Amino acid sequence: MSTAEKTLAHLAGIPGLRVAAGEPLARYTRFAIGGPADIYAETASVDAFIAALDACRNSGLAHVVIGGGTNLIVSDEGFRGIVLRFTADCVVADGPRIRADAGAELGRVVDYAINAGLAGIETLAGIPGSFGAAIYGNAGAYGHSMSEAVDAVRFFDGRSVRVFGNAECAFRYRESIFKRNREWIVFSAELLLAPADRKDLRRAADKIVAVRNAKFPPALKCAGSIFKNLLFAELPPDAASALPEKVVREGKVPAAYFLEQAGAKGAAKGDIRVADYHANLIYNAGAGTARDLCELIAELKSHVRDRFGIELEEEVQYVGFEDRA
Predict the structure, then answer these.
(1) Is 174 a catalytic residue?
(2) CATH for 3-86 (3.40.630.30, 3.30.200.20, 3.40.190.10, 3.30.43.10)
(3) Helix, strand, or coil here: 95?
(4) 203 catalytically annotated
(5) Which of 27, 122, 123, 319 has the lowest tally of Cβ within 10 angstroms?
(6) What's the alpha-carbon Rg for the chain, to the nearest Å?
(7) Residues 134-152 pLDDT 10s
(8) For the structural domain made of 218-324, what CATH number should be given?
(9) Which residue in 18, 97, 174, 202 is the catalytic one?
């Protein structure tokens, strides 16, 4: 029996863990792109997840943990190893506090807060993906971010389950200590919010969702914005001095501005295309491949680098690419 077969059998014996061989990963990504994983396992149980992770490490096989797949690009060849996914999605409130599991959809957590008359995350309405991913990447919109609401995060550091307060999470723009320590796994987080009128919150959220859906239709096979916006203070002097004043918003410059100036709108490679109305929106028009997607991303980065001396950074994560490990 091979190592993979032994590991598959071991994982299948862990209570509460769903295990499959050759699972297509395209079904777990917003791009609907990606080949199969040799072994796929998911669970809503913390104990089962830790046991599965321990089995993966002992096997010596490559393994990776994924979330909702919103910001995920999976190789056309898939992943040679084990893919783990934590799916717990409970959301509960206690006064001004909301506790949510990492596997809950961010939109559901936002709606829960609004319905409870709690303000602090309504500007995140309409952002796809899991709550855990929003913590991991410090998701934000309209001048606010998840870091403003987080009170505590429960996670696994590879040896034990720990809890960090907000300051220990070291949040920065689209960053956190969890993103910088990718072996750490977020299980849940507690938000501290403020009482507010639920009707006002709903109106504000609905306006945001309408704008977002106009730019990023829910059925579109995309990851939202591909590239992170840039901090004005960190731009090369030549690029910063040439920017129209109206482009700078709250100290940030949309990556879409530089992409548009570099001719990104409407660019395509196979069935992977840049929207003709938004230069930072890349989508799969049908039969797109990860190869075409990665090549188009590389071309866009090159165009912006050559013209502005700026290195764009992707918001997406890569799985199954040896050169991007």
Answers:
(1) yes
(2) 3.30.43.10
(3) coil
(4) no
(5) 27
(6) 20
(7) 999 999 988 899 999 999 9
(8) 3.90.78.10
(9) 174
